[in-house]
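Fig. S4 source data, part A: sequence.
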Amino acid sequence: MSFIADALRVVPGLGKAFAPGEIPVGGGQATGAYLARSREADAAAIIGDGQGTSIVQAVINWYLNAFPEAALRVMERDKQSGKRVAVDPHDLTDLLETPNEYYGGDELMAGLIISDIIDGNGYVLKLRNASTRVVEFWWIPHTLIKPMGSRDPMGPFIEYYEYRVSGRRYEIPVTEIVHIRHGLDPANPRLGMSRLKGQLREILTDEEAAKFSAALVHNQGAPGLVIAPKNADQTIGEADALVIKAKVDQTAGSGNQGRTVVMSGSTDIHQFGFSPEQMSLSAVRGVPEERLSAALGVPAAVVGFGTGLASSKVGATMSEFREMAVEQALVPMWRRFAKGLARGLTHEFAGNRDIALAYDTSEVRVLQEDRQHLHDRTRADVEKGILDVATSQAILGYPVDEGQRVYLRSPLQVEVPAEGVRA
């Protein structure tokens, strides 16, 4: 990674009238402080940040599959109308589509999505050519980088980003990092706030329930047995008991279910175990699914969690749940990512033009129902003479034919002045 060594250096901040370096970090009842003083710390010691758990992976996979449905567009302000219009193709979106020679735009965004969900912070490194033009983008995992304040109280709020990899430390200038946050963490306002840290106990509960279920299935797949003398006046010596136990375990233990065991003495064998109904932990596992779905804004049914699928049978339809997931999970993420990328990148590609970034949701399938409703309402207004044809074309996003500034009214309709019937 020699390009890192060449490109990364501290850019000194300019002094300011206020002291951003004195902004308190690490206090308050915020995510980090709450984590340190609660059982969430114990959960983190067992499952880390939760990324490797099945319940979190299910939600992340949904985000990774659904996020690319909307395309990122460069929007330029039209000088005549004042409205922003899409510019396609554009150097910025072309580079984001192919950020480097090793992976594509979907993979770059996937890294940002994972970091955003797990940590609340996503980072992109810019690489420049000899003429200082940005020519590559690289995702940096949130575990390797963090923003650092100035040692001078009058210095900048963020002086550089500390990047640690392979035992080496780099100071990356602020200008070379695009930092996308999820809100602000009151414990450290240089960072965004993780949505998972407050759910670690719930995630751990689900993991422990999964382990317990697996242990029950492994140990009780062939029901446990109690072997006792048939007659009350008989006893089994310790040595004989060990021989009998070893024989039964070897003959009918795990992997040998259904085999026959022949006992040499008069014995009773009793099943001792749990029924499938008793082994069910669906109620216990339902609560973590609900809490995690609420924290990440994705209805449990959309992800495929059992608790959500049960509710979809008696409440909202699956299509309504999908629309809810897009509107409360993806739409805010699209908006936040577009603003974060624009803040760090548009000045590099704008020249003297006024450009912004926005995700185009017109092709998002679950939102097409809203388009259908818009078409239906507009068509009804035209048929009733409320809107002229040209206005309806503008509303629906079609090219406007100025020759269609006409109202479609039935010849049976009679115009009546507001002051009364004409003489």
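Fig. S4 source data, part B ends here. The first helix runs from residue 2 to 7.
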